[in-house]
Design goal:
The protein is an alpha+beta fold and 171 residues long. Helix content is 45%, strand content 29%. The chain is built from seven helices and six strands, in the order E-E-H-H-E-H-H-H-E-E-H-H-E. Strands 1, 2, 3, 4, 5 and 6 form a six-stranded antiparallel sheet that branches. Helix 3 packs across helix 4 and helix 4 runs antiparallel to helix 5. The termini are far apart.
Length: 171
């Protein structure tokens, strides 16, 4: 028997005038109608879906891409002085100057120097001239949930490579 499935590209965005905008796009294929119905039922009932029970249905769902984008319209400039004061760095310039180094320390555990450099460069460019920052996953071919579940948890950087994750600023 053929299994009915839904292929979707979903885009969600929210913005606040003269502050910022946020966009999220997800491209998933092969979502079983039964799983989609279960998600809708949980949402309509105000409950969390039981993903453990749904996992067998979701293993063949494929992920073809995702984009998360923050578009600044002045919010960053308003928040930087507050963040600098809270961090104890004194002023905004010190925070901006050290943000890349702080991010680099956190990203080192991924053991992916190319991704770390790309991300640090994007953070530095964004903080110096806040326009936009984008995180995009664009695998060469769709990746199934089963493939993602099979990734070695001791090698989190392999997910970055598998999904071809890229970070850019002001593009």
């Amino acid at each position: 028997a053929a299994q009915c499935a839904i292929d979707e590209v979903r885009e969600f965005g929210v913005g606040a005038r003269e502050m910022a905008g946020f966009k999220f796009t997800l491209n998933a294929e092969g979502i079983p109608i039964a799983a989609y119905a279960e998600l809708q039922k949980a949402q309509n009932g105000g409950k969390e879906p039981d993903f453990n029970a749904m996992m067998p249905q979701l293993m063949n769902v494929s992920f073809a891409g995702m984009t998360v984008r923050f578009e600044d319209a002045s919010l960053t400039r308003k928040l930087l002085p507050i963040a600098a004061a809270m961090s104890g760095m004194g002023d905004e310039a010190a925070l901006v100057a050290n943000a890349g180094a702080m991010a680099q320390l956190g990203l080192m555990q991924l053991n992916n120097p190319e991704f770390t450099k790309q991300t640090v460069d994007a953070i530095n460019a964004f903080l110096k001239d806040p326009k936009s920052i984008t995180v995009q996953a664009k695998p060469g071919a769709p990746i199934t949930v089963a493939q993602l579940m099979g990734v070695n948890p001791a090698d989190p950087g392999s997910v970055i490579k598998l999904l071809n994750v890229m970070v850019s600023a002001n593009d």
